[in-house]
């Protein structure tokens, strides 16, 4: 049966099957043309099979599968052996008796949605083979006679060989082989095929039963569940379920029922004896010796060794196995898939509401009418139904997410892996991400959402290794990708006990020591080094950074405040501090107390002379700034300089302009 189905847009619908070689009524033809014009972008599929399915939900599902498989195989065998081979194949009765080639297969044409004969399935008959053979012989002879006589031996001699090859070898022997072997082959193959097809109701159930038995004994391809037992199903049931779980396990349970309480009592007695004996020993040692004689040692010795404090870190890490990390990564991937799936399904559920709202707004917006979700209205009922579906969807996904969610603890940020395990996890995690993200997550995203996904992770598209690294950091902590060193895992305490041979060697080498003298506690904590960029204070080389307080009125009168003896006693200052204060009195030109005039431009000669003088005479009282300086400031500085020093401030051979 040829079936035509429209696969896009969904849902899949079946349309009537029409053949191009038949003539139908005008009503049927017009209906088919309307179907084509209604949706030019629709996609159609042609198939000639029927699909049957069974479920493993109910008991005796294998017997139902056996009956279904026997029926399907029997139908296929009868169709193939009784119809296709005897009447539609190259060695069929039709190929033996028909005069012209025939086509046994059909194809669907998109133009008229009818079934046309497939030119690739053309089958040659007995007569057409003979005709094609002698047409080929005649064409070969015509081609030979058409070519000019430019051959190796000449055309008169070549014609003899050409006629012999075409008429005798190809024509005569080809005709004999076709006339002798082809009819016999057609009769035998078609007859045997038809007989096997007629007898198939007898032998096909036996073959199906043998196939099911082999599946149960060797390889069960129809096992229930994705991770069901497939190899040697019966042996697994007999050994695992019956022998181990049914016989051995109850015996072990009975033994454990008797042995476990006895063992528990013995362990409790041992723990109590060990606890009280050890506590009594510690209490006696503490009160008799340590309390009265012990002191804090300055270094490690024979009886006491420092185990904590400066130099010994208390940073520990927890190492997990690689399969556990990969399982957690798969759980995170599935959680992300559930989030994307929920968003995708919610968009589908809300689409009817959006379409209804858009239609209502376009129709009634000119009348200032808005759609409202009221109880009893069409929109209200639609909204209630959609809300119910979304609520069920979210509750179902939330239940699954609760099962997949990892419960973080205070030790979650201290999980690490060794370098080899981390490398293996990154490789396997990259393969997992590359396998599942395009199939399970990206299929729900459009182009913009996919671009936003990579931008949120700050990654290039298809950078699976970096994506796996980001997911692992999100799953555990930011420093999870830092490999765990051997010294980061535990304290390695090793005591080299002296045996008889070692004691003799110790005496011989004159290297006498106790056991604890060679015990070492090794631990290298993780250290974070912060290296700052080197900086340099450029003002050190600037001679004009420290400037003289030339804003003082050097020609004014000075007034000294007088204070009482009590004030001078409590505010007494040494003389050297007064001199230092006078020498280091500087001016900040950004302060509001500076009364300089607006700076005027100076020539380069003045700048150079001031810089040279400040460099040669390193005296803070004569240092002047070149940033904010006016001509009046320079003249005031020169006049003040003349009162203190007889030498000029600037060289005599330069002038200030």
From TrEMBL:
Parts forming coiled coils: none
Domain of life assignment: Eukaryota
Signal sequence segment: none
Keyword Hydrolase: no
Residue ranges of the TM segments: 167-196, 202-219, 255-273
Keyword presence, rRNA-binding: no
This protein's UniProt keywords: Membrane, Transmembrane, Transmembrane helix
Protein name: Uncharacterized protein
Organism field: Rotaria magnacalcarata
């Amino acid at each position: 049966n040829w079936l035509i189905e429209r696969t896009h847009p969904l849902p899949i619908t079946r349309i009537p099957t029409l053949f191009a070689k038949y003539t139908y009524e005008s009503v049927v033809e017009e209906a088919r043309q309307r179907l084509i014009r209604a949706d030019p972008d629709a996609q159609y599929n042609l198939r000639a099979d029927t699909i049957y399915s069974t479920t493993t939900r109910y008991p005796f599902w294998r017997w139902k599968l056996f009956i279904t498989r026997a029926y399907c195989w029997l139908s296929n065998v009868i169709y193939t052996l009784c119809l296709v081979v005897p009447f539609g194949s190259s060695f069929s009765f039709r190929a033996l008796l028909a005069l012209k080639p025939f086509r046994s297969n059909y194809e669907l044409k998109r133009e008229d949605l009818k079934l046309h004969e497939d030119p690739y399935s053309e089958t040659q008959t007995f007569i057409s083979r003979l005709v094609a053979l002698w047409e080929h012989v005649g064409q070969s002879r015509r081609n030979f006679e058409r070519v000019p006589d430019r051959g190796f031996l000449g055309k008169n001699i070549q014609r003899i060989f050409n006629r012999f090859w075409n008429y005798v070898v190809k024509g005569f022997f080809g005709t004999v082989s076709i006339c002798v072997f082809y009819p016999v082959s057609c009769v035998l193959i078609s007859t045997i095929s038809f007989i096997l097809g007629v007898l198939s109701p007898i032998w096909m159930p036996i073959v199906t039963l043998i196939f099911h038995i082999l599946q149960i004994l060797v390889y069960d391809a129809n096992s229930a569940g994705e991770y069901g037992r497939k190899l040697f199903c019966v042996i697994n049931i007999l050994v695992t379920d019956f022998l181990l779980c049914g016989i051995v396990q109850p015996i072990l349970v009975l033994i454990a029922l008797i042995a476990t309480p006895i063992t528990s009592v013995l362990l409790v007695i041992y723990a109590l004896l060990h606890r009280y004996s050890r506590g009594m020993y510690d209490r006696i040692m503490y009160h008799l010796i340590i309390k009265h004689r012990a002191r804090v040692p300055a270094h490690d010795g024979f009886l006491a060794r420092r185990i904590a404090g400066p130099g010994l870190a208390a940073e520990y890490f927890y190492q997990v196995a690689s399969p556990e990390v990969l399982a957690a990564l798969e759980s995170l991937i599935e959680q992300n898939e559930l989030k994307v799936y929920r968003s995708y399904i919610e968009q589908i559920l809300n689409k009817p509401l959006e379409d209804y709202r858009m239609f209502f707004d376009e129709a009634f917006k000119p009348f200032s009418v808005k759609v409202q979700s009221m109880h009893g209205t069409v929109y209200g009922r639609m909204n209630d139904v959609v809300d119910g579906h979304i609520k069920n969807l979210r509750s179902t996904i939330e239940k699954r997410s609760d099962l997949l969610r990892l419960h973080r603890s205070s030790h979650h940020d201290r999980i690490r892996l060794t370098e080899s395990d981390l490398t293996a996890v990154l490789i396997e995690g990259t393969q997992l991400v590359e396998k599942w993200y395009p199939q399970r997550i990206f299929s729900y995203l459009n182009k913009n959402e996919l671009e936003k996904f990579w931008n949120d992770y700050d990654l290039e598209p298809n950078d699976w290794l970096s994506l796996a690294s980001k997911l692992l950091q999100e799953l555990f902590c930011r420093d999870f990708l830092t490999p765990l060193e051997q010294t980061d895992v535990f304290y390695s305490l090793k005591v080299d006990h002296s045996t008889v041979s070692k004691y003799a060697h110790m005496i011989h080498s004159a290297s006498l020591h106790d056991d604890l003298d060679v015990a070492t506690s090794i631990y290298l904590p993780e250290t974070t080094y912060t290296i700052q960029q080197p900086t340099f204070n450029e003002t050190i080389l600037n001679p004009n950074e420290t400037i003289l307080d030339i804003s003082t009125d050097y020609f004014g009168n000075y007034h000294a405040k007088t204070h009482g003896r009590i004030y001078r006693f409590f505010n007494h200052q040494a003389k050297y501090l007064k001199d230092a204060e006078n020498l280091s009195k500087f001016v900040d030109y950004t302060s509001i107390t500076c009364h300089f005039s607006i700076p005027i431009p100076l020539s380069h000669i003045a700048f150079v002379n001031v810089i040279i003088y400040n460099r040669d005479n390193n005296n803070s009282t004569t240092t002047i700034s070149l940033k904010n300086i006016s001509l009046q400031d320079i003249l005031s500085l020169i006049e003040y300089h003349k009162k203190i020093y007889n030498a000029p401030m600037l060289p005599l051979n330069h002038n200030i302009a």
